[in-house]
Design a protein that fits this description.
10-stranded antiparallel sheet; Catalase HpII,  Chain A, domain 1; alpha+beta; about 375 residues
Length: about 375
């Protein structure tokens, strides 16, 4: 894989083939709108002349507006760096160099969902963490995770339909409840996924939040044996529930300022936990969790010890394409993965040709 962090990816993107009821729908709509902001967890093969990367990017722009030089989703962010230290346990599952005992350098980016880079922080906004692992022999592993336990849709068409349903009405500037109701009626998987999402407590900050890959992948060991896996980052920092009061939240950038203060005080750490799938576990549906009790393996610790504004960090221009994988990790049959890669590339291409505007989190903020 190339080590040029400004290149979108080594691979070419695949062609993208009244009343209480309204109140309840409004609540679901809020969750979905923030998820719509979750990083473009899209993928799959699209029908020719139907869904394309450009159409997805256009729809994100209609929902959130266009901000020069920023990602079309997860636009608000701050950059970090550090290292991953493997404990060697992962070598039993995958021949990937990242799992050999030892350290590799890591660069990444914390973000909030949505296309507005100046939006006020809120506890229920989806949080993201994109990472790039620099491996020996020029290989890279790029991954982007969010703090949701499942994804709310399971197909590219479902994601697009949901995005259209959350587009603000020109008069009310809010999603149309009737459109949301029609979307939910045709997507029962979303109704079930939202129940799971709302049943999980949200942490108080970026530093004590877990981050999930959601899509399944496959690990290939040295003997060629393949096993389906999902991965997650579990924080060493103790969990604290998020406050929903404005007084507790404080500044509109309070989540990012909290992260900056925390990482300047001490390195932040997460355990990389691999969940092993069994026959019958869905590998093509990110909206469905695997059964409780599946074997898990702690394969090492991620340490982030430096934070930097996007204006001065190369991570601003990194495309955290989930299909940039080292030998020993391959995609599953999840139809979201290839579209996610293709839309990431489209977003990269658009922002690369635009003038870069200042980020909400400035270099002076990081030096506080």
């Amino acid at each position: 894989m190339p080590t040029d962090s400004t290149s979108p990816t080594k691979t070419q993107p695949a062609p993208l083939t009244g009343g209480s009821a309204l109140v309840r729908l409004g609540g679901i709509g809020i969750v979905l709108l923030s998820v719509a902001g979750a990083f473009l967890y899209l993928g799959g093969w699209f029908t020719p002349n139907a869904l394309t990367p450009a159409r997805f990017a256009d729809e994100f722009e209609r929902v959130d507006g266009i901000y020069s030089g920023f990602r079309r989703n997860h636009a608000k962010g701050v950059c970090v760096s550090g290292f991953f230290e493997s404990n060697g346990q992962g070598e039993r599952l995958s021949k990937a160099a990242v799992f050999r005992t030892g350290r590799v350098r890591v660069i990444g980016r914390f973000s909030l969902s949505g296309g507005d880079p100046y939006v006020a922080d809120a506890p229920d906004t989806v949080r993201g963490l994109g990472l790039l692992f620099w491996l020996p022999d020029g290989e890279e592993w790029r991954t982007a995770m969010i703090n949701l336990p499942v994804f709310p849709v399971n197909t590219p068409q479902g994601f697009f339909d949901r995005l259209v349903a959350t587009q603000p009405d020109a008069k009310t500037h809010k999603p149309d409840p009737e459109k949301m109701a029609a979307f939910l009626a045709s997507h029962p998987e979303t109704v079930e996924a939202v129940k799971i999402i709302k049943s999980h407590a949200v942490s108080s900050g970026f530093d004590n939040s877990g981050y999930n890959g959601l899509n399944a992948f496959r690990f290939i060991d040295a003997g060629g044996k393949s096993i389906p896996v999902r991965w997650a980052l579990v924080p060493v920092q103790p969990f604290e529930a998020a406050s929903t009061t404005g007084t507790a939240q404080g500044d509109k950038n309070y989540l990012f300022y909290g992260l900056i203060v925390s990482i300047l005080q001490h390195p932040l750490q997460w355990h990389l936990i691999i969940t092993l799938g069994q026959p019958g576990d869905p590998t093509d549906d990110a909206s469905v969790p695997w059964p409780e009790g599946r074997d898990q393996m702690d394969v090492g610790t991620l340490t982030l010890d430096s934070v930097e504004s996007e204006e001065t960090s190369p991570a601003r221009d990194i495309n955290f394409d989930p299909l940039v994988l080292p030998a020993g990790i391959t995609p599953s049959d999840d139809p979201l993965l290839s579209a996610r890669s293709a839309v990431y590339s489209q977003s990269f291409t658009r922002r690369a040709g635009e003038k870069k505007e200042p980020s909400a989190i400035t270099p002076s903020d990081v030096r506080k």
